[in-house]
Write a sequence for this structure.
């Protein structure tokens, strides 16, 4: 078989595999995520024995308080809600935003509840969120909501025992893309002009009715992302419409939006530490781009790690306990460890400048600029593109 024909056939199989995987990913999360969280929070054998009368009942001391359905941002008449998991004790504690997956079109904050409970027991204040979903809300609506959540957590830090200087984020799949994009884009936005001016889209491109990315004025100190697509610039053929439900157009019609949705596009030496984990047999989201992103961050001097989940696909890797613990350990090192204080001092002046510019930046997202909820405090090679990198 001629080499060029073989390449075309391989490429078509890759596209078909991606389309089928995307469909499955949009159908599986509700059941799979719920089961995973049920497993994570299911009673231990001792508790079951107590209920059966085989042991004396015990009343374990509460280690955290959960505050459910807290409004963090409002778009017109639509309120977006969050759950907060707050440790007992005086605090303040590092704060982590957790962002669910679901192909940007499905999912809810409850999908992260089990992981949030694990993380709060490690001494974090954790916020899980609902965000606007495609196809009704196209990119960057999801990013705007995540940025609003970080700003809200920073502004309401006192109420939830959060240390403003130690904020991080965790996400899987679509959620991983969103937290990685927040982490990577901030420095690029600052370089556009005074006050952290947002990166603009090309004029009159259509798709989303928002023409700028939101400006993140609060620095994230570390992020962890699993199964995250990090580069849409060469992932799919130019005329593919697989992602138009989220990005509005094909890459041939609107290459700029595919660029701006790619965390890997924004890398700089000022990015925070980043951890990526990926299933060895993830055929939905190619691991090659996240692996290359880690290599590029390392070359820039940014602490970055890539963790392979052996023998797991896209959904199964989400529930791999070793990968979860590795991501939490990474957050521990960079939000609690020795390196955190040094980075905090280095970024102190930048954070102060950004906070003072916050009011100026509120008007940089026209038409869909959200109404903030009430706050108490102010402020590759082609062969690599369609498969996982094993």
């Amino acid at each position: 078989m001629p080499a060029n024909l073989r390449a075309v056939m391989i490429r078509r199989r890759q596209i078909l595999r991606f389309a089928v995987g995307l469909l499955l990913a949009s159908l599986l999360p509700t059941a799979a995520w719920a089961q995973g969280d049920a497993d994570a929070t299911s009673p231990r054998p001792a508790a079951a024995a107590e209920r059966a009368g085989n042991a004396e009942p015990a009343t374990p001391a509460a280690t955290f308080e959960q505050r459910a359905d807290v409004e963090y941002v409002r778009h017109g008449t639509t309120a977006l809600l969050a759950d907060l998991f707050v440790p007992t004790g005086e605090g303040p504690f590092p704060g982590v935003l957790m962002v669910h997956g679901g192909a940007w079109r499905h999912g809810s904050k409850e999908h992260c509840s089990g992981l949030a409970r694990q993380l709060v027991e490690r001494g974090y204040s954790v916020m899980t969120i609902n965000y606007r979903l495609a196809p009704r809300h196209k990119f960057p609506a999801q990013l705007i909501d995540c940025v609003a959540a970080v700003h809200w957590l920073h502004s309401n830090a006192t109420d939830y025992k959060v240390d403003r200087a130690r904020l991080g984020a965790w996400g899987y799949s679509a959620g991983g893309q969103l937290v990685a994009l927040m982490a990577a884009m901030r420095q690029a936005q600052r370089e556009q002009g005074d006050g952290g001016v947002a990166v603009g889209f090309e004029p009159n491109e259509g798709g989303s009715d928002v023409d700028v990315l939101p400006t993140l004025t609060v620095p994230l100190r570390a992020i962890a992302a699993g199964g995250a697509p990090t580069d849409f610039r060469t992932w799919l053929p130019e005329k593919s419409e697989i992602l138009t439900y989220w990005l509005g157009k094909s890459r041939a019609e609107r290459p700029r939006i595919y660029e701006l949705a790619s965390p890997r596009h924004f890398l700089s030496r000022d990015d925070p530490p980043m951890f990526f984990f990926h299933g060895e047999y993830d055929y939905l989201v190619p691991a090659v781009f996240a692996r290359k992103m880690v290599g590029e961050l390392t070359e820039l001097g940014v602490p970055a790690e890539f963790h392979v989940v052996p023998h797991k696909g896209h959904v199964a890797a989400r529930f791999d306990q070793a990968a979860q613990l590795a991501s939490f350990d990474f957050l521990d090192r960079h939000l609690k460890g020795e390196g955190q204080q040094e980075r905090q001092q280095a970024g102190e002046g930048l954070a102060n400048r950004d906070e003072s510019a916050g009011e100026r930046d509120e008007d940089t997202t026209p038409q869909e600029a959200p109404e903030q909820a009430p706050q108490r405090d102010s402020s590759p090679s082609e062969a690599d593109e369609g498969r996982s990198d094993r």
